[in-house]
Amino acid sequence: MKLPKLLLFLLTLSLFSCVEKEEPTTFKFGVWTTADPKKSDADYTKEFKKYKDGGIDEVLINTSTDPKLLKRLVPLATKEGLKVHAWIMAMNRPGDSIALQHPDWYQVSKDGKSCFDNRPYVDYYQWLCPTRQESRNHVLNLVEELAKVDGIESVHLDYIRFPDIFLPISLLPKYNLVQDTELPQFDFCYCDECIKAFEKIHHKNPKNSHNTSIDMEWKNFRLNAIKAVVDDAYKIVHKHNKQLTAAVFPYPEMADHMVRQRWDKWNIDEVYPMIYHSFYDEEIDWVGYATKQGVADLEDKKTKINTGIYIPGLKSDKELKEAILLAKDNGATGVSFFDGNALTASNLKTIKETKDGLK
Question: What is residue 309's DSSP assignment?
């Protein structure tokens, strides 16, 4: 018995609809890279093509907050199929020619020394105060200039925190330090503007506290100072139809403890926690642990997590693949690698193969 043509067509359509379509993965791969204005367009095209061929989807570019250089690079990266994020060093502004004309803009340690001329740990630690209107507005103006650049996905905040009150454990020997307690030379910011603003709210001076490390109001004041800068930046970049993203410490409680940064409280589209396991003398599985913790802390929020992976801290391409899968399996929407210069041809081959295996 012959089936009517319409019935035959419907049966065929039903059969094809049952076949699963292979959807491309939405898990994205990024890389941080620092621009050199002296580098030619041809060399940049070659670099961006190398990333794209290696499975990279987006580049987070540090142009030293130069919108003109960013405008030059965006079309080159876009042509190679890469999305571009404008990476900015936010509260830490090394070599900022405008800020350096204003010594009062800089953070002051508990022992009364300013980052303007007494820099903690390294010479490029030149931290601006997030409370003083002039310094915070300077940072926000820089954010806006980057947000105006056509074709970028986001303004990507880095160093959006205070200086490290505690260094990652593996870095302590480098500075011949023991940090069992909060040391005054690494405890910021005690500038006049911060003291005045705190006193207005809490009617006390933190300098008179018997133990500032357990003064929750003082700690919370500084957490909120950073949050206020981020929240203002969020409004600015969204006004220009861009997103706000940030490189942050591994998970909120750890970031709170180490650098006065509580990123689960921020208005922000996506965070890139730098889960650099080797900095903390941890094994590779810590990438999954820290990713999962951050995802849990952001539960019921729209903020996405993109796990940052430190390439020099990996022992092999096998660990690279494992780190990617640990991030994905624990809720990250992507991974990003620090940094472009560290990625070998073998690394890129592994990234591409791992990405293809996710489809």
Answer: E
Is the pLDDT confidence value at 353 over 50? Answer: yes
**215, 209 Cβ separation under 8 angstroms:** yes
In order, the DSSP letters of 185-208 are: GG-B---HHHHHHHHHHHSS-GGG
The string of DSSP codes covering 228-285 is HHHHHHHHHHHHTT-EEEEEE-SSHHHHHHHHS--GGGS--SEEEEB--GGGGT--TT
Q: How far apart are CA 87 and CA 245, in angstroms?
A: 9
Return the SS3 of 358: coil
My answer on whether omega of the bond before 189 falls inside 30° of 0, hence cis, is yes
Write the pLDDT tens digit of every residue in 205-262.
Answer: 999 998 999 999 999 999 999 999 999 999 999 999 999 999 999 999 999 999 999 9
pLDDT per residue as tens digits for the range 272-316: 999 999 999 999 999 999 999 999 999 999 999 999 999 999 999
Q: Which residues contact 227 (CB under 8 A, 6 or more apart)?
A: 262, 265, 266
- Cβ contacts of residue 21 below 8 Å, gap of 6+? none
Q: pLDDT tens digit string along 143-189?
A: 999 999 999 999 999 999 999 999 999 999 999 999 999 999 999 99
Q: How far apart are CA 260 and CA 255, in angstroms?
A: 6
pLDDT at 17: 42
Cα(317)–Cα(320) distance, rounded to whole angstroms? 5
Alpha carbon distance 334, 355 (integer Å): 11
Q: Is 351:325 a contact under the CB 8 Å cutoff?
A: no
pLDDT in the model for residue 67:
98
d(CA 322, CA 316): 10
The amino acid at 188: F
| SS3 state of residue 83 | strand
Rounded alpha-carbon distances, angstroms, from residue 179 to 165, 167, 176, 190, 249? 9, 8, 10, 20, 18
pTM to 2 decimals? 0.92
Which residue, among 284, 285, 351, has the nearest Cα to 317 in the 3D structure?
A: 351
